[in-house]
Write a structure and sequence with these properties.
The structure holds 2 protein chains of 2 kinds. Chain A has no helices and 11 strands. Chain A is mainly beta. In chain A, strands 2, 4, 5, 6, 9, 10 and 11 form a 7-stranded mixed sheet that branches. In chain A, strands 1-3-8-7 form a 4-stranded antiparallel sheet, with no helix packed on it. In chain B, about 35% of the residues are buried. The chains are: A mainly beta, B mainly beta.
């Protein structure tokens, strides 16, 4: 099946710094990718829809200026957590749909902000 | 409102016994339904989906799910559970289709499956 990768898999940073997370579709093109956030023992929460060539669409309550999304190409979307704080610590997962209505998920990135 | 519900936070089953993880949905129109599995510290893995056709859908690792329109359910099943099936299972429903290749899934809260040796 299709493969989606994320990098890094785990990042630890100091409060106030910015962190960039990459999401790549390895063997298919995706005009749209999705970014989710998962708190411990909870379900995924959709943060935003990343659109190639246009602005991302953010879900209600998600700060656009804090979570910057750039869909640079048909195989790459990046999520930048700006001025990270401890409450931003979470598991971030991206997904991309293939042409058969199935979404494939990246392995996730665990962000720890000290 | 459109939603998907997993009524059980946790399901315990003995190894070798059949397992069922429940999912019900509430959407307008015909639903697209999915099951995903998440192992500890890992991303989600696709198990199976129902779009149209046969109500019984077979997926990865011996799992299957039955779409029941009258009961608005899409329960995940496996005839004989393995210890390695222990994980977090998410049911999801496709809520929007823009026609431009974008799909958004809404997830249930997840059900933790523990298979006891």
């Amino acid at each position: 099946g299709a493969v989606v990768s994320q990098h890094p898999s785990w990042v630890i940073c100091k409060s106030g710094t910015s962190v960039k997370i990459e999401c790549r579709s390895l063997d298919f093109q995706a005009t749209t990718m999705f970014w989710y956030r998962q708190f411990p023992k909870q379900s995924l929460m959709l943060m935003a829809t990343s659109n190639e060539g246009s602005k991302a669409t953010y879900e209600q309550g998600v700060e656009k200026d804090k979570f910057l999304i750039n869909h640079a190409s048909l195989t790459l979307s990046t999520l930048t957590v700006t001025s990270a704080h401890p409450e931003d610590s979470s598991f971030y997962i991206c997904s991309a749909p293939d042409s058969s209505d199935t979404q494939y998920f990246g392995p996730g990135t665990r962000l720890t902000v000290l | 409102a459109q939603s998907v519900a997993q009524p059980e936070d946790q399901v315990n089953v003995a190894e070798g016994n059949p397992l069922t993880v429940k999912c019900t949905y509430s959407v307008s129109g015909n639903p697209y339904l999915f099951w995903y599995v998440q192992y500890p510290n890992r991303g989600l893995q696709f198990l199976l989906k129902y779009i149209t056709g046969d109500n019984l859908v077979k997926g990865s690792y011996g799992f299957e799910a039955e779409f029941n329109k009258s009961q608005t359910s899409f329960h995940l099943k496996k005839p004989s559970a393995l210890v390695s099936d222990s994980a977090l299972y998410f049911c999801a429903v496709l809520l929007t289709y823009s026609g431009a290749g974008s799909y958004q899934l809404t997830f249930g809260k997840g059900t933790k499956l523990s298979v006891i040796p």
